[in-house]
Amino acid sequence: MAILGVSADPEKALANFKKKQKLNFPLLGDPTHKMIEAYGVWRPKKFMGRIFKGIVRSTFLIGPDGRIEQIWDEVRVKGHAAEVLEKITQSLQKNPS
Predict the structure, then answer these.
(1) Would you say 38 and 32 are in contact if contact means Cβ atoms under 8 Å apart?
(2) Strand 68-72 vs strand 59-62: parallel, antiparallel, or unpaired?
(3) In CATH, what number is assigned to the domain containing residue 55?
C-alpha cells in the first residue's frame, strides 16, 4: 500500500510543506497539470464570487490491479483520513496479498 500526494506546486514548495507538516509520504509536483487533468481534478472553483480553475481536493484509492476502487471528490479534511483508512481496511480484507 502506498500513499502519494499530488500538487501543481513546484518541488521546492512541496518539500517545504512536507517538512512543515511532518508528512511521511511522497508529494509529487505536477506544474504542467498532466496528471491532475488526467484524474479530472483541475476544474472550475468558486471563491468569494470569483470563478477560477484550480485543484479540487480529491482522494483516489487505487487497487493492486491498478484500477480505481474508490473516489472521494471535493474532500473536507475533518474525518477524511479515518474514512479512507476504513475503506483501505475493507479492501485489504477482500483482497489480501
Answers:
(1) no
(2) antiparallel
(3) 3.40.30.10
